[in-house]
Write a structure and sequence with these properties.
504 residues, alpha+beta, Methyltransferase, Cobalt-precorrin-4 Transmethylase, Domain 2, Heat Shock Protein 90, six-stranded mixed β-sheet, four-stranded mixed β-sheet, 17 helices, 17% strand
Length: 504
Amino acid sequence: MNAKSADFISASAELQVELDAALPLLRAAATDHESVEVKSAAGGFPTSVLKSISAFSNGRGGLLLFGLSDTDFRPVPIDAAKLAADLASACSDDLEPKVRLRIGICDVEGRPVVAARIPPLAHQHRPCHVRSEGMNQGSYTRVHDGNRRLTDYEIHVMVSGRGQPNDDAAPVEGARLEHLDDALASDLLRRLRQRRGEIFTDAADHEVLHMLGVLAEPRPDSPVTLAGLLALGRYPQQFMPQLGASFVVLPSTDGSPLFDGTRFIDNQPLDGPIPAIVAQAVSAMQRNMRRRSVVEGAGRQDIWDYPTEAIREIVANALMHRDYHSNAHGTQVRISLYPDRFEVASPGGLHGIHSGRTDVAHLIDSSINSTRNALLARLLEDVVIPGTGRPVCENRGSGLRAAVQALNRMGMGPPELDDRVRELVVTVANQQAPSHKPQKGTPDQLIRLLEAGPLSSADLAAALGTSKQTVLNWLRRLRAEGTVAPTHAEPQTRGNKWMLVSQQ
């Protein structure tokens, strides 16, 4: 047996395990899966599968199966050997770049099924596209059980990931030295002259700011760069209205409004330079989080729902690493606090993963230090967050690791990172929840809803997505603990509502 034959047998055995695991799920759902595509291929190789291969390659990879009915997923007659050969040829000849996949012939109910594992393409080679359609029309992504053509912006994000963007170095029309925050700029110059030696000590302010990339040219009337404006500007949104952040507190785990139409419990735009936005984000989160006190020895420590350090690092990372290309100037960083989690979404997906590994655990655990905005990241090393005395970032690829460590100290799991190409969403689950998936209502979420004012048990049940009886059981327990009370002496009174005891 030659090496090629041995490899094919090995691939078939591995793919049989995947097929055996996937088949019951496909039959139960009666449809394809986000990571599994099924084609009967009874009439020969289906060229439409090229779109699926492109989509799998541009995402997390996937499993292709030829020889199963797409209605009941039972085996159908196929020429397995020819299909396997045609698939390998198509991946080599009809896709750009070529896709290297593992192909095997497996068995379902005694009949052959061709199975193929499509690996995720390394970020520096994306997007994979159908050659005959061209990159702009032939690049796809996987959505549920189908394929969607990538937008022009998503293609831009992937292509820009192949190298080092310089969008943050672009001069901002109309922005000059007088538009910088005097305190931030002066503090930066002082820190540099104290720490970095004669090259900064002997130069004029405008020369130092040019060397740092704050000014586009080495003269006092030079335009300010985008990085300089974002790091040191008095009000960058004067020139770039959407390059800030938004903060919202949503009343339900799925973002749906309350019974009275209330969409947000809190809603605040976060403007100013990045250091100020980070400080505002932490303050807004603390304003809407619960705090409990733990006595340790002779002192007392305040414990929040989410550790301040984790919030600060995640928000700073989002602002520093977001896409600042002109195509993304209309999109803000979004910070959303739900009853069971908080999320931070930033324009542009993950950038600069050149190892070929795409799982986000690797990103958190590794020491990779790759940034979309190198100039901005370097500046933020020496720009201090107001009221903290600490720089916005270390620029050592350590921000997410610091967030993970802070969460671990509270017994919480690591963030979930969802790279959606057009944006990166970082999610942190509330407290010691074993799963990051949104949960049905809980007593803690009930208390959060009552913080906005009295509500009936029926309204609480609707908002929490659970039964009225479950809510009543929680209310009885919380009443016994002295946490909640009815607005009327008898809970059964018509029109009665529930409120927090602290609101009495």
